[in-house]
Amino acid sequence: MPVVFRGLIIAGVFATMMGSTSAALNALATSFTKDFYLPYFNRNATDQQAIRAARIATSVFGILMILVATMAANAVLHDAKLTIIPIAIGILGYTYGALLAVFLLGMLTRTRGRDGANVIGMIVGITSVLILCKVALPAFDVGALLRGEFRHADWNFGWFMPDWWPKIAWPWFVCVGCLVTVAISVLFRTPESQIATAGAHVRSTSDA
């Protein structure tokens, strides 16, 4: 392939990467600032403080993305059979089940679920996916890292599960996380104040 075309292909790859990465970083930083920093850490934050928090969050999430990409590339180097599609969709499966559960709880019920219980249910749901599905994530050896060495190692979250328990494939991750999260969140009743507020909002919308 001529040099000119090789340069154009490399430029196109970097342009695509920059576009998708900047969108992801912007979404992560905005979500952190709006959903966590302003409501819980600094409710009276000025615009300058909010922008500074978003910039810091962008840097932190960028570093985390680099670490995840490094571990994924290292895992592919050690196992040529690994492909990016199962890894990417499998990672989505860890959290999408919990998100789907909270969405279904809000759509199908009126008096079940509350904020704190939903967060706990989502954490347990994500953890259940890692354990019940016997997920082995490509990572590093913690002991070797403490000695100043970087070695590839798999973190097997279901190591204590019995041998007769099957290793569930990644297409079922969403189902497992959703069922566990719903089973926990549905046990808690929505506060009466939120139910009354929702009812008033529905009535005002209907009258309008």
Short characterization:
The chain has 208 residues and is mainly alpha-helical.
Coarse morphology: globular
The computed structural class is: mainly alpha
Give the % helix: over 70%
Strand order of the main beta sheet, please?
Answer: 1-2
Cα end-to-end separation: 65 Å
- Number of structurally distinct domains: 2
Mean pLDDT: 84
Query: Any idea what the radius of gyration is?
Result: 22 Å
- Taken as a percent bin, the fraction of beta residues is under 5%
Number of helices: 7
Comma- or semicolon-separated keywords:
208 residues, two-stranded antiparallel sheet, 5% strand, 2 strands, mainly alpha, single chain, 71% helix
What this model shows, in words?
A two-stranded antiparallel sheet has the order 1-2. Helix content is 71%, strand content 5%. The protein has seven helices and two strands. It starts with a helix and ends with a helix. It has two domains: 1-81; 83-133 and 168-208, no CATH class. The protein is mostly helical. Helix 4 runs antiparallel to helix 6.
Q: What secondary-structure arrangement, pairings included, does this model have?
A:
Blueprint: H1 3-41, H2 47-78, H3 84-108, H4 115-132, E1 136-140, H5 142-146, E2 152-156, H6 173-185, H7 192-207
Antiparallel strand pairs: 1-2
Helix pairs in contact: 1-2, 3-4, 3-6, 4-6
